[in-house]
Specification:
Number of domains: 2
Helix content: 25-40%
Strand order of the largest sheet: 1-2-3-4-5-6-7-8
Structural class: alpha/beta
CATH class of the largest domain: Alpha Beta
Distance between the termini: 23 Å
Number of helices: 11
Mean pLDDT: 92
Oligomer: single chain
Shape: globular
Order of helices and strands: EHEHEHHEHEHEEHHEHHH
Protein backbone atom coordinates (compact mmCIF):
# COMPACT_ATOMS: atom_id res chain seq x y z
CA UNK A 1 0.00 0.00 0.00
CA UNK A 2 2.84 2.40 0.77
CA UNK A 3 3.66 2.92 -2.92
CA UNK A 4 0.08 3.98 -3.79
CA UNK A 5 -0.57 6.05 -0.65
CA UNK A 6 -0.10 9.80 -0.91
CA UNK A 7 -0.39 12.09 2.11
CA UNK A 8 -0.49 15.87 2.00
CA UNK A 9 -2.23 19.10 2.96
CA UNK A 10 -5.29 20.99 1.79
CA UNK A 11 -3.80 24.06 0.15
CA UNK A 12 -0.37 25.62 0.45
CA UNK A 13 -0.78 29.39 -0.04
CA UNK A 14 -1.08 30.35 3.62
CA UNK A 15 0.71 33.53 4.74
CA UNK A 16 0.83 32.19 8.31
CA UNK A 17 3.10 29.36 7.08
CA UNK A 18 5.80 31.79 5.94
CA UNK A 19 8.84 31.57 8.18
CA UNK A 20 7.52 28.36 9.78
CA UNK A 21 7.04 25.90 6.92
CA UNK A 22 8.59 28.01 4.16
CA UNK A 23 11.74 30.11 4.20
CA UNK A 24 10.97 33.81 4.04
CA UNK A 25 12.35 34.20 0.52
CA UNK A 26 13.60 32.30 -2.48
CA UNK A 27 11.77 28.96 -2.68
CA UNK A 28 8.29 28.28 -4.02
CA UNK A 29 5.99 26.62 -1.45
CA UNK A 30 5.29 23.69 -3.76
CA UNK A 31 8.98 22.89 -3.94
CA UNK A 32 9.05 22.65 -0.15
CA UNK A 33 5.89 20.54 0.13
CA UNK A 34 6.76 18.19 -2.74
CA UNK A 35 10.04 17.39 -0.97
CA UNK A 36 8.07 16.38 2.13
CA UNK A 37 4.91 14.82 0.69
CA UNK A 38 3.45 13.17 -2.40
CA UNK A 39 0.17 15.11 -2.64
CA UNK A 40 -1.53 18.44 -2.16
CA UNK A 41 -5.15 19.47 -2.58
CA UNK A 42 -5.82 22.63 -4.58
CA UNK A 43 -8.16 24.88 -2.58
CA UNK A 44 -8.38 27.87 -4.91
CA UNK A 45 -10.31 25.90 -7.55
CA UNK A 46 -13.29 25.96 -5.18
CA UNK A 47 -13.54 29.73 -5.64
CA UNK A 48 -12.40 30.29 -9.21
CA UNK A 49 -11.41 28.35 -12.30
CA UNK A 50 -7.71 27.70 -12.56
CA UNK A 51 -5.53 29.40 -15.16
CA UNK A 52 -3.82 26.75 -17.36
CA UNK A 53 -0.56 28.72 -17.48
CA UNK A 54 -0.44 28.89 -13.67
CA UNK A 55 -1.17 25.17 -13.37
CA UNK A 56 1.71 24.43 -15.74
CA UNK A 57 3.99 26.48 -13.46
CA UNK A 58 2.85 24.43 -10.46
CA UNK A 59 3.65 21.23 -12.35
CA UNK A 60 7.20 22.46 -12.96
CA UNK A 61 7.66 23.27 -9.28
CA UNK A 62 7.03 19.63 -8.27
CA UNK A 63 8.94 17.91 -11.08
CA UNK A 64 11.65 16.71 -8.67
CA UNK A 65 9.11 14.31 -7.15
CA UNK A 66 7.71 11.98 -9.85
CA UNK A 67 5.19 10.50 -7.38
CA UNK A 68 3.64 13.85 -6.54
CA UNK A 69 -0.02 14.35 -7.45
CA UNK A 70 -2.47 17.22 -7.18
CA UNK A 71 -6.10 16.84 -6.27
CA UNK A 72 -8.49 19.75 -6.80
CA UNK A 73 -11.81 20.86 -5.38
CA UNK A 74 -14.64 21.36 -7.84
CA UNK A 75 -15.92 24.94 -8.06
CA UNK A 76 -18.57 25.79 -5.49
CA UNK A 77 -20.88 26.97 -8.27
CA UNK A 78 -21.36 23.30 -9.17
CA UNK A 79 -21.64 21.78 -5.70
CA UNK A 80 -23.26 24.57 -3.69
CA UNK A 81 -25.15 26.78 -6.15
CA UNK A 82 -25.93 23.80 -8.42
CA UNK A 83 -25.29 25.80 -11.57
CA UNK A 84 -24.20 23.67 -14.54
CA UNK A 85 -23.61 26.22 -17.27
CA UNK A 86 -21.73 24.75 -20.23
CA UNK A 87 -19.33 27.69 -20.47
CA UNK A 88 -18.39 27.50 -16.80
CA UNK A 89 -17.91 23.74 -17.02
CA UNK A 90 -15.70 24.16 -20.09
CA UNK A 91 -13.61 26.87 -18.38
CA UNK A 92 -13.10 24.74 -15.27
CA UNK A 93 -12.05 21.73 -17.35
CA UNK A 94 -9.52 23.82 -19.26
CA UNK A 95 -7.91 24.83 -15.98
CA UNK A 96 -7.36 21.28 -14.68
CA UNK A 97 -6.63 19.65 -18.04
CA UNK A 98 -2.85 20.35 -17.86
CA UNK A 99 -2.77 18.21 -14.71
CA UNK A 100 -4.46 15.35 -16.56
CA UNK A 101 -2.12 15.69 -19.51
CA UNK A 102 0.93 15.65 -17.24
CA UNK A 103 -0.47 12.68 -15.29
CA UNK A 104 -0.37 14.76 -12.13
CA UNK A 105 -4.09 14.74 -11.29
CA UNK A 106 -5.17 12.33 -8.60
CA UNK A 107 -8.83 13.30 -8.32
CA UNK A 108 -11.41 16.06 -8.51
CA UNK A 109 -13.21 16.52 -5.20
CA UNK A 110 -16.91 17.37 -5.15
CA UNK A 111 -17.27 18.91 -1.69
CA UNK A 112 -20.98 19.14 -0.87
CA UNK A 113 -22.45 21.11 2.05
CA UNK A 114 -24.19 19.45 5.01
CA UNK A 115 -27.53 20.58 3.57
CA UNK A 116 -27.01 18.27 0.57
CA UNK A 117 -28.82 15.29 2.05
CA UNK A 118 -29.57 12.01 0.30
CA UNK A 119 -32.85 12.56 -1.53
CA UNK A 120 -34.09 11.50 -4.96
CA UNK A 121 -33.56 15.06 -6.24
CA UNK A 122 -30.03 15.31 -4.86
CA UNK A 123 -29.16 11.85 -6.17
CA UNK A 124 -30.20 12.96 -9.65
CA UNK A 125 -28.08 16.11 -9.42
CA UNK A 126 -25.12 14.01 -8.19
CA UNK A 127 -25.47 11.89 -11.35
CA UNK A 128 -25.73 14.96 -13.58
CA UNK A 129 -22.55 16.38 -12.08
CA UNK A 130 -20.75 13.10 -12.53
CA UNK A 131 -21.76 13.02 -16.21
CA UNK A 132 -20.66 16.63 -16.71
CA UNK A 133 -17.13 15.70 -15.57
CA UNK A 134 -17.12 12.13 -16.85
CA UNK A 135 -13.53 12.24 -18.12
CA UNK A 136 -12.08 12.99 -14.67
CA UNK A 137 -11.59 10.78 -11.60
CA UNK A 138 -14.22 12.11 -9.20
CA UNK A 139 -14.48 11.86 -5.43
CA UNK A 140 -17.38 13.25 -3.37
CA UNK A 141 -17.35 14.50 0.21
CA UNK A 142 -20.74 14.18 1.86
CA UNK A 143 -21.10 15.82 5.26
CA UNK A 144 -24.61 14.57 6.06
CA UNK A 145 -24.85 11.03 7.39
CA UNK A 146 -27.85 10.17 5.16
CA UNK A 147 -25.31 9.37 2.44
CA UNK A 148 -24.29 6.28 4.40
CA UNK A 149 -27.56 4.59 3.37
CA UNK A 150 -27.13 1.47 1.25
CA UNK A 151 -28.80 3.07 -1.78
CA UNK A 152 -26.62 6.15 -1.46
CA UNK A 153 -23.38 4.15 -1.33
CA UNK A 154 -24.73 2.10 -4.22
CA UNK A 155 -24.99 5.31 -6.27
CA UNK A 156 -21.30 5.96 -5.65
CA UNK A 157 -20.50 2.43 -6.83
CA UNK A 158 -22.77 2.55 -9.87
CA UNK A 159 -21.26 5.78 -11.14
CA UNK A 160 -17.66 5.08 -10.10
CA UNK A 161 -17.34 8.04 -7.78
CA UNK A 162 -14.90 7.76 -4.90
CA UNK A 163 -16.28 8.15 -1.37
CA UNK A 164 -14.40 10.77 0.65
CA UNK A 165 -14.01 9.50 4.21
CA UNK A 166 -13.86 12.43 6.59
CA UNK A 167 -12.94 13.24 10.17
CA UNK A 168 -14.75 16.20 11.69
CA UNK A 169 -16.29 17.45 14.95
CA UNK A 170 -19.54 15.85 16.07
CA UNK A 171 -22.78 17.69 15.32
CA UNK A 172 -26.34 16.86 14.19
CA UNK A 173 -26.37 14.09 11.56
CA UNK A 174 -22.69 14.64 10.84
CA UNK A 175 -20.96 12.05 8.69
CA UNK A 176 -18.99 9.83 11.11
CA UNK A 177 -15.56 8.32 10.40
CA UNK A 178 -15.79 5.70 7.66
CA UNK A 179 -13.52 3.49 5.58
CA UNK A 180 -15.51 3.24 2.34
CA UNK A 181 -13.99 2.53 -1.07
CA UNK A 182 -16.37 2.95 -4.01
CA UNK A 183 -13.96 3.47 -6.92
CA UNK A 184 -10.30 2.84 -7.67
CA UNK A 185 -9.45 6.05 -5.77
CA UNK A 186 -9.45 6.03 -1.97
CA UNK A 187 -9.79 9.44 -0.34
CA UNK A 188 -9.59 10.70 3.26
CA UNK A 189 -9.93 14.29 4.51
CA UNK A 190 -9.12 15.16 8.10
CA UNK A 191 -10.66 18.48 9.15
CA UNK A 192 -9.78 18.37 12.83
CA UNK A 193 -12.21 18.10 15.74
CA UNK A 194 -12.48 21.71 16.86
CA UNK A 195 -16.19 22.21 17.72
CA UNK A 196 -15.97 25.69 16.20
CA UNK A 197 -15.39 23.99 12.86
CA UNK A 198 -18.53 21.83 12.78
CA UNK A 199 -18.99 21.56 9.04
CA UNK A 200 -22.77 21.70 9.15
CA UNK A 201 -23.65 24.89 10.98
CA UNK A 202 -20.51 26.45 12.38
CA UNK A 203 -20.24 30.18 12.90
CA UNK A 204 -19.06 31.37 9.50
CA UNK A 205 -18.03 34.69 11.02
CA UNK A 206 -15.33 32.91 13.04
CA UNK A 207 -11.81 33.37 11.67
CA UNK A 208 -10.65 30.46 9.52
CA UNK A 209 -7.59 30.01 11.71
CA UNK A 210 -9.77 29.28 14.71
CA UNK A 211 -12.09 26.98 12.76
CA UNK A 212 -9.17 24.83 11.58
CA UNK A 213 -7.17 24.99 14.79
CA UNK A 214 -6.77 21.37 15.88
CA UNK A 215 -3.75 19.12 16.32
CA UNK A 216 -4.43 15.39 16.12
CA UNK A 217 -2.88 13.24 18.82
CA UNK A 218 -0.82 10.19 18.01
CA UNK A 219 -3.68 7.96 19.21
CA UNK A 220 -6.17 9.72 16.94
CA UNK A 221 -3.85 9.36 13.98
CA UNK A 222 -3.41 5.66 14.79
CA UNK A 223 -7.20 5.20 14.58
CA UNK A 224 -7.19 6.65 11.09
CA UNK A 225 -4.10 4.68 10.08
CA UNK A 226 -6.12 1.49 10.50
CA UNK A 227 -8.92 2.80 8.30
CA UNK A 228 -6.48 4.05 5.68
CA UNK A 229 -4.74 0.70 5.56
CA UNK A 230 -8.09 -1.05 4.97
CA UNK A 231 -8.90 1.33 2.13
CA UNK A 232 -5.42 1.01 0.64
CA UNK A 233 -5.62 -2.78 0.43
CA UNK A 234 -8.02 -2.48 -2.51
CA UNK A 235 -7.55 1.04 -3.93
CA UNK A 236 -5.33 1.74 -6.90
CA UNK A 237 -4.33 4.97 -5.19
CA UNK A 238 -5.20 6.51 -1.82
CA UNK A 239 -5.05 10.18 -0.85
CA UNK A 240 -5.02 11.47 2.73
CA UNK A 241 -5.45 15.24 3.03
CA UNK A 242 -5.15 17.26 6.24
CA UNK A 243 -7.30 20.40 6.38
CA UNK A 244 -6.24 21.69 9.83
CA UNK A 245 -3.97 24.40 8.48
CA UNK A 246 -3.95 26.73 11.54
CA UNK A 247 -0.37 27.23 12.76
CA UNK A 248 0.73 24.63 10.18
CA UNK A 249 -0.80 21.81 12.20
CA UNK A 250 -1.74 20.03 8.97
CA UNK A 251 1.94 19.78 8.05
CA UNK A 252 2.83 18.39 11.47
CA UNK A 253 0.09 15.75 11.39
CA UNK A 254 0.85 14.81 7.78
CA UNK A 255 4.51 14.21 8.71
CA UNK A 256 3.46 12.11 11.71
CA UNK A 257 0.97 9.98 9.78
CA UNK A 258 3.42 9.47 6.93
CA UNK A 259 5.99 8.14 9.38
CA UNK A 260 3.36 6.00 11.11
CA UNK A 261 2.08 4.27 7.96
CA UNK A 262 4.94 4.45 5.48
CA UNK A 263 7.87 4.43 7.89
CA UNK A 264 9.30 7.54 6.22
CA UNK A 265 10.62 10.45 8.27
CA UNK A 266 11.71 13.43 6.22
CA UNK A 267 13.52 16.39 7.74
CA UNK A 268 10.89 18.86 8.93
CA UNK A 269 11.56 22.60 8.47
CA UNK A 270 13.66 23.91 11.34
CA UNK A 271 11.21 26.56 12.54
CA UNK A 272 8.39 24.03 12.46
CA UNK A 273 10.46 21.70 14.66
CA UNK A 274 11.04 24.55 17.09
CA UNK A 275 7.31 25.25 17.25
CA UNK A 276 6.39 21.57 17.75
CA UNK A 277 9.41 20.06 19.54
CA UNK A 278 7.50 17.11 21.02
CA UNK A 279 5.64 16.03 17.89
CA UNK A 280 8.63 16.55 15.58
CA UNK A 281 11.40 15.36 17.87
CA UNK A 282 12.25 12.53 15.47
CA UNK A 283 12.06 14.65 12.31
CA UNK A 284 15.41 16.41 12.54
CA UNK A 285 18.23 16.02 9.99
CA UNK A 286 20.18 13.61 12.20
CA UNK A 287 17.20 11.26 12.48
CA UNK A 288 16.60 11.38 8.73
CA UNK A 289 20.25 10.53 8.03
CA UNK A 290 20.07 7.60 10.47
CA UNK A 291 16.98 6.27 8.70
CA UNK A 292 18.65 6.46 5.27
CA UNK A 293 21.65 4.55 6.56
CA UNK A 294 19.40 1.92 8.12
CA UNK A 295 17.42 1.47 4.90
CA UNK A 296 20.61 1.24 2.83
CA UNK A 297 21.96 -1.45 5.10
Amino acid sequence: MASSLRIGTAGWAYPHWNGIVYPKTGVHPLQILSAQFDAVEINSSFYQSLKPELVKLWIKKVEANPKFRFTAKLHQAFTHSRVLHEEQIREFKEGVRPLMQARRLGALLMQFPWSFKFTAENREFFIQLRRAFSEFPLVAEMRHSSWMAQEAVGTFLDYRVGFCNIDQPEYTRAMPPTAFLTSEVGYVRLHGRNPQNSLGAFDRSAPRGRQHDYLYTEAELAEWAKRIERIGQFADSTYVIFNNDASAKSVVNALELQAMIKGVRTTAPRELRRKYPVQLEKFGPHRAEQQELFQAA
